[in-house]
Amino acid sequence: MDNGYLSKTPIWQYVLVSLIFPMWGMAASLNDILITQFKTVFTLSDTATAFVQSAFYGGYFLIALPAAYIIRKNTYKTAIMTGLTFFIIGCAMFFPASHMATYGMFLAAIFVIAIGLSFLETSCDTYSTMMGPQESANRRINISQTLIPFGDAMGIILGKYLIFSGHSNLEAESAGLSAAQKAAFNKEVLLLTLKPYKYILFVLLVLLVLVAITKMPYAKAKTDLAAAQGGAGVKQPSLGESINYLLHNTRFMKAVGAQFLYVGIQTCVWSFTIRLALRIIPGITDHAATNYMIISYGVWFVGKLCANWLMERFSITKVMIWYCLLGTVVLILTATIHSPIAIWGAVATGFFFGPVYPTIYAHGLDQVTEKQHTETGGAFMVMSLVGGAFVPVIMGRVSDLSGSMQLSFIVPTIGFALILWFFLSEHKKGAAKAA
């Protein structure tokens, strides 16, 4: 179509793009395992461990616009293959990192993975919305995103059985060791990080080959297509013009801000859930604590399915208002009730996280009425993932200063309340427009 949306969804190409979604979920959930591991091996504070997420989401922020530029000048397929290549390189870097045994080298590997994921999310999220009629764009991205919990759960399972296997509690095991024993213990633990990345590398190589041999639809606004083909009288906007348009699009920028907060609070809750369990339940092992995260991703998946069903029957913004309201209430309980109920509160929050990211993403792109700016709009949305770099550091700082991991959950609580305000305002504007 003229606006870049396809008149019909190409099933195999849509499925292939959707299969990439769980791969970045797997990488993100493995970070939650690595944080627990690095805290013991490198003797880190809660604030310092949050820099794993800073390296991860910082890569998203720095590379999203270059990724959009590549999409504008080439195709979504080019960006996807570039992203898979960087993802493969980053995973391969874990091999030298595990032998060098320095925190900085691991952060570098995580940063390179994030570069690849920035390309993938900038291209795949936007591509998914464009691969069919505009009126079903929200449904398509929500279906694609429904696969992410499987990747998240698989990442935790790989970490549980390949990284934590054979160890009960890393912090307890390392206590009282001599310097030489601690060095040997750390080396053994860090070598375990290689195992899950071997499997991920194999899957990524298969996906790279499949994308390379598959013919992918263009799915870009006709002005972009005509300009790329040298069409007379048609001017593709420059990157600067697109940025200027988006910065002055108030509703779009509010969506970017809401996405910043959402990624931040999701990263907070999932990064700290395992350690919350370790603090609240005496004697629980690292291996057992990961079960809470596996359940969280299952709950997240159910939350997505329920939201997809509800959005077919009720206003999208109204559904999101209820999700955000109940999510805020559950986080209040997590921050205030000192018992295992708090852990289950953190787990239950995953249900209400379910539809938030894809809905904000699709809703934000809907505000980009001049569709020749869509690729750059998608980059802005992916850049907002830098919230995952900043908000967990704030939460870690609150935990260190207060001495209470549980109290620090007030940070994501405030964030969820602000996202609730965003959807309330969008619902009012939608109702006023319909009146």
UniProtKB/TrEMBL annotation:
**What is this organism's lineage?**
Bacteria, Bacillati, Bacillota, Bacilli, Lactobacillales
Localization annotation: Cell inner membrane
Pfam families, per database record: MFS_1 (PF07690)
Matching entries from PANTHER family are given as:
L-FUCOSE-PROTON SYMPORTER (PTHR43702)
State which residue ranges cross the membrane: 12-30, 50-71, 78-95, 101-120, 141-163, 196-213, 260-278, 290-307, 319-337, 343-365, 377-395, 407-424
Question: What InterPro entries is this protein classified in?
Answer: Lfuc_symporter_FucP, MFS, MFS_trans_sf, MFS_TsgA-like
Query: What protein is this chain from?
Result: Fucose permease
Q: Which GO terms describe its cellular component?
A: plasma membrane
Q: Which UniProt keywords apply?
A: Cell membrane, Membrane, Transmembrane, Transmembrane helix
Topological relation to the membrane, as annotated:
Multi-pass membrane protein
